[in-house]
Specification:
574 residues, alpha/beta, Beta-Lactamase, Heat Shock Protein 90, five-stranded mixed beta sheet, 17 helices, PAS-like_dom_sf, EC 2.7.13.3, HisK_dim/P_dom, histidine kinase, phosphorelay sensor kinase activity
Length: 574
């Protein structure tokens, strides 16, 4: 390019004869021509253009630009680059990256992109006399990036579309699995309840036939009907446990003492062919859990282990302090932190991955018909969740199975921990006519049976069908604003009674049992209260845990359960 510059006729340009060019111009031309980077020098008011060989491809098929005005060379784009050139001649260096221009360099307009720098050139006095255009065309790079961006956008749209399809499919699968689980649950409930009802109905039918004939030898039928009814009650409690809605009465427990205290029971349950080992951790943290429910969970696990070892084996129960990290906590949907682990392991047949995946499903069982309900492990799952913990199963075919129960560490006074299962206090089931029990129940049949039972036990019994009616019996004025009709409480109840115990359902139309108890105690501060309900989450239960000090009896209940609970509430110190 240097030869072309020297051979060019500069006399027709504002620069004139190169022999008279000022030092600044000659120096700058030398820099431009010797550079391997595309550069153009724009000089003086006439914007005379001088460029190097590397700049030539930028021009494309444009007419010879050497010595021409930069404005004329890029006339079609001057509206965009002219202001930038003005800034350079004003002494400001300008850097522009991927600057879009429409140029005509190959016979037709085309969209191009340049990254360039306009740098002012000064003479010996410091005046700006020109600018250097250092430039690189980035059209291919920009178009490649745009193509990649468009492709990425299409891919993202495709991924989003496929993701929506996948989510739709997964939702459909989950719904199908849910319906399958509900169907299995409903089928299991119907099967078990029908069997239990068959026992109850058959027993009562035979009882009726015997009594019609004057035959009083009916004890076996009564026992059969009672057994069927109690099994149905146990089934509902297990369903509540699985759904995490059973009422819990947690207390501070020492897990080491609890499992050691179950040794005799477990020994009888497992039989002589199964050995048992306890591996308890020293310094085990206390836990806060429902004693009865935890015992039931461990017993169910032991029974499953026994059934998995028909030819004998070994059952190991271990305890340990563990720390659940964030990763495991997220997977198990629990809070990270400190837990007490109770592990129950057997050397039985083990489970296949397919069976293991369904181990905690309600009514899922691999046992023979009549050998199990399929609710034991689902009850354990519900209990663990409701207690703020987690249960997980590990199993290998031919090696055995381990169930790991994680319960949160109790951070209160561990000295209150019960070291062994608490002994149940035997209380007198009978009452006195001086003890007046007010039964409030909106379900007539339940109310009548409860009233007759308490009268049979020796209590004086009043009854009402709702809260306002009960308050009329206790103190009259407190029922104002609630409506109600004491006449709706049959049985010749007398008003203004000094009631000893309020036995009330919790969930009733209008005034709840909790509201009734609060209003009644405003009249009789020493009134004792015992709540009953077939529900579990209601006015006196917070997250499935009984309020401290609340006396509670779950429906259905047997006569001896009602008798013992009423007696214990009445005999409890104020």
């Amino acid at each position: 390019m240097g030869e072309r510059v020297r051979a060019h006729d500069w006399s027709a340009t504002p620069l004139g004869d190169p022999g008279h060019w000022p030092p600044a111009l000659r120096t700058t031309v030398s820099i431009v021509l010797n550079s391997h980077f595309p550069k153009a020098l724009v000089w003086g008011p006439g914007l005379v253009t001088i460029y190097n060989d590397a700049f030539r491809p930028i021009l494309g098929a444009k007419p010879e630009a050497l010595g021409r005005s930069f404005r004329d060379v890029w006339a079609e784009a001057w509206g965009s680059i002219g202001p930038l050139a003005d800034r350079a001649f004003a002494g400001e260096a300008t850097f522009i990256e991927d600057f879009p221009l429409v140029v005509d360099r190959n016979g037709e307009p085309e969209q191009v992109w340049f990254t360039f720098c306009y740098s002012p050139v000064r003479d010996e006095s410091g005046a700006v006399v020109g600018m250097i255009d250092t430039v690189i065309e980035t059209t291919r790079t920009v178009l490649a990036h745009r193509t990649a961006a468009e492709l990425n956008q299409r891919l993202e749209a495709e991924v989003e579309h496929r993701t929506r399809e996948l989510m739709t499919t997964q939702n459909a699968l989950r719904q199908s699995q849910k319906m399958e689980a509900i169907g299995q649950l409903a089928g299991g409930i119907a099967h078990d309840f029908n069997n239990m009802l068959a026992v109850v109905i058959s027993g009562l039918n035979l009882l009726q036939r015997r009594l019609d004939r004057g035959d009083t030898n009916v004890g076996a039928y009564i026992d059969g009907a009672m057994d069927g009814a109690m099994r149905a009650a146990v089934l509902t409690q297990r369903l509540l446990a699985f759904s995490r809605q059973q009422p819990l009465a947690p207390e501070v427990l020492d897990a080491n003492g609890l499992v050691r205290g179950m040794e005799e029971l477990l020994t009888r349950t497992l039989g002589e062919t199964i050995g048992m080992e306890f591996v308890t951790s020293a310094g085990l943290w206390a836990i806060h859990a429902d004693l009865n429910q935890l015992e039931n969970v461990l017993l169910n696990m032991a029974v499953n282990a026994r059934d998995a070892m028909p030819d004998g084996g070994r059952l190991t129960i271990e305890t340990a302090n563990v720390h659940v990290d964030d990763a495991y906590a997220a997977e198990a949907a629990i809070e990270p932190g400190q837990y007490v682990l109770i592990a129950v392991s057997d050397t039985g047949a083990g489970m296949t991955p397919e069976v293991l995946a369904k181990a905690f499903d309600p009514f899922f069982t691999t046992k023979e018909v009549g050998k199990g309900t399929g609710l034991g492990l689902s009850q354990a799952f519900g209990f663990a969740r409701q207690s703020g913990g987690h249960v997980r199963a590990y199993s290998e075919v031919g090696i055995g199975t381990t169930f790991k129960l994680y319960l949160p560490r109790f951070f209160g006074d561990a000295r209150k921990a019960a070291p062994t299962p608490l002994s149940r206090t035997i209380v007198s089931p009978t009452g006195s006519p001086r003890e007046i029990v007010l039964v409030v129940e909106d379900e007539e049949r339940v109310r009548n049976f409860t009233v007759e039972t308490l009268r049979e036990l020796g209590y004086t019994v009043l009854h009402a069908f709702d809260g306002p009616s009960a308050l009329e019996l206790i103190g009259g004025a407190a029922a104002d604003g609630w409506g109600g009709d004491p006449a709706g409480a049959p049985g010749g109840n007398a008003p203004r009674q000094d009631v000893t115990l309020l036995l009330t359902d919790i969930v009733m139309p209008g005034m709840t049992g909790r509201q009734l108890a609060d209003a009644a105690r405003a009249i009789l501060p020493d009134l004792k209260v015992l709540y009953t309900t077939g529900y579990s989450r209601n006015a006196v239960i917070h997250n499935g845990v009984l309020d401290p000090g609340t006396n509670f009896l779950s429906k259905p209940f047997a006569i001896d359960q009602l008798a013992a609970k009423v007696r214990s509430v009445l005999d409890a110190p104020d």
